[in-house]
Amino acid sequence: MSIKSILEVKNLHAGFGTTEVVKGVSLSAQYHTVTAIIGPSGCGKSTFIRCLNRLHEETSGAFANGEVWLENTDIYAKNVDPVSIRRKVGMVFQKPNAFPSMSIFDNVVAGLRLAGVKRHSILKEIVEQSLISAALWHEVKDKLNAPGTSLSGGQQQRLCIARALAVEPTVLLMDEPTSALDPISTAKIEELMTELRKKVTIIIVTHNMQQAARISDQTAFFLSGELIEFGETSQVFTAPKMDQTERYITGRFG
Amino acid sequence: MERHFDTSLRELKEQLVTMAGLVEKAIEEATQGLQSANVERFENVFDLEKKINQCHISVDSACLKLLALQQPLAADLRLIFAIIKINTDLERMGDQAVNIARNAEEYIKAAPLKPLVDLPIMFQEVRQMVGITLDSFVKNNEPLAREVLKRDDRVDALKNKIFKDVLEHLKTHSAQVEQGLTLILIARNLERIGDHATNIAEDVIFALKGEDVRHSTQVSTIKSALK
Questions:
Q1: Closest chain A residue by Cα to residue B76
Q2: What is the CA radius of gyration of chain B?
Q3: CB atoms near residue B142 (< 10 Å)
Q4: C-beta atoms of A250 and B1 within 8 A
Q5: Is A213 on the interface with B (CB under 8 A)?
Q6: What ipTM was reported for this prediction?
Q7: What are phi and psi of B146, to 5 degrees?
Q8: Cα–Cα distance between B102 and B39 in angstroms, integer?
Q9: B residues 139-198 lying closer than 8 A (beta carbon) to A
Q10: Contact A250/B73, CB-based, under 8 Å?
Q11: How many domains does chain A have?
Q12: 20 to 30 A Cα–Cα from B97, which one of A19, A214, A246, B13?
């Protein structure tokens, strides 16, 4: 019996205008796993994950065809509201993007307020839980009203993770979440991902091979918009099946 | 585009090949010393072993450095992983050459048990096995490595034959027990060298193909038992 996937992508094509960036990718992720997506710049990995919460279509001229099943919903089906999908599929970006005019507290609950949650006691509880889950609580609990942007880069990134977690997503997309961070902040986020996977399924785009190797259960290698290899991380990084994967991860490309 | 790392890997391989050359020479000197009853050749074995030990340390340290600084993956990682293990096997082969030399020194002090027949065949078989193994490593040649795996059975069979013949002989020549035991020990030392050569061949296959061929009969037995 096969284990049911939380996320299943079938023959996804995406791009901008007449340019196809993602060329018929199919892959799936099981519950509570970390999937790393690796590949050279411009291979379509960011576009791919932006399709997983329908963020890609926000760019003008963008198109996406294919099926993306989140549990029992095809998120590209006609009657589906993209906003509800983005609540279930959270996203953390490369550069920490704490809302500059908001306090730490308000940053965390920004999504909840948009969803109409108003009661302070509930918001307070969720702020604490989300910050604990993002391993930031102990550093900020005494200054929740300070501006989010007063935190260090690594802390701001964890604040963004807390903000994403506050709406209780089932999937968390991370687009190079540590590429702008120092090794200590990176290590904290990596440690955090290992904890978070108990609650959410993580899809991470990373340029750092060692990071992909350390934190993920499965790895997908993209090249020129195509999925070249997809397998268990331990296999991909010790004995990749495809020659192109081998060349890329050993730095022999080009 | 050649990477700087490729130069480091090539240097590491060269270091290991130099060490392997010393090991081959040590085996050669030990076995020839016995066949020609020439004690001086055993001295060469002892000198070679000291050099092998130095190589053992420097190969390990080069591997550790590359692992830490280059954080290799895929074929690079498999190669360094294999070299670390091959390094250990080569060092032990050097030890076995010393054991052969020591045992042979004892053996040639007294009158020979009987003319050596199977042992020279075994010498040749093991030397060839070691030669092919190292060739497979130097040339990245998987079929050669697989050839070594087949040859191990021949060495084992020769060892068993020597054990049996010596035991048979001792039944009627009990005064030669010490001599007989020494021959048995030498056959065992040679068999061990063959085992190390087999390990190296398995590591070469792993480095080249990512396939773990060790204990293959055992693994298939376990798999079929689990079905």
A1: A250
A2: 20
A3: 16
A4: no
A5: yes
A6: 0.74
A7: -65, -30
A8: 10
A9: none
A10: yes
A11: 1
A12: B13
**Residues of A in Cβ contact (< 8 Å) with B75:** 246, 250
- Fold of the domain built from segment(s) B4-220: Methane Monooxygenase Hydroxylase; Chain G, domain 1 (1.20.58)
The answer on pLDDT for A2 being more than 70 is: no
Residues in chain B with CB shorter than 8 Å from the CB of A210 are 71
Domain that holds residue A213: 5-249
CB A209, CB B74: distance < 8 Å: no
pTM equals: 0.83
Give me the amino acid identity at A158: R
Q: Is B213 within 8 Å of chain A by CB?
A: no
CA distance A183 to A189: 10
Is some CB atom of chain A closer than 8 A to the CB atom of B78?
Answer: yes
CATH number of the CATH domain containing A243: 3.40.50.300
**Tokens in use for B90?**
């080569």
pLDDT in tens, B111-152: 888 888 899 999 999 999 999 999 999 999 999 999 999 999
- d(CA B50, CA B66) in angstroms, rounded, equals 25
**How would DSSP label each residue in B187-204?**
HHHHHHHHHHHHHHHHHH
> What is the three-class DSSP state of A51?
helix
- Alpha carbon distances (Å) from B87 to B142, B146, B195: 19, 19, 14
Q: Which residue of A has its CA nearest to B207?
A: A239
Of the candidates B3, B77, B211, which has its C-beta nearest A251's C-beta?
A: B3
Q: Is A249 on the interface with B (CB under 8 A)?
A: yes
State the Cα–Cα distance between residues A85 and A75, nearest whole angstrom.
7
A234 domain-assigned: yes
Find the closest chain B residue to A250 by CA distance.
Answer: B73
Q: A60 exposed, middle or buried (CB, 10 Å; 0-12, 13-18, 19+)?
A: exposed
Is residue A254, in this structure, part of any structural domain at all? no
pLDDT score at B166: 95
Is A233 inside any structural domain?
Answer: yes
At position B155, the amino acid (one-letter code) is V
| Res. A178: pLDDT tops 80 | yes
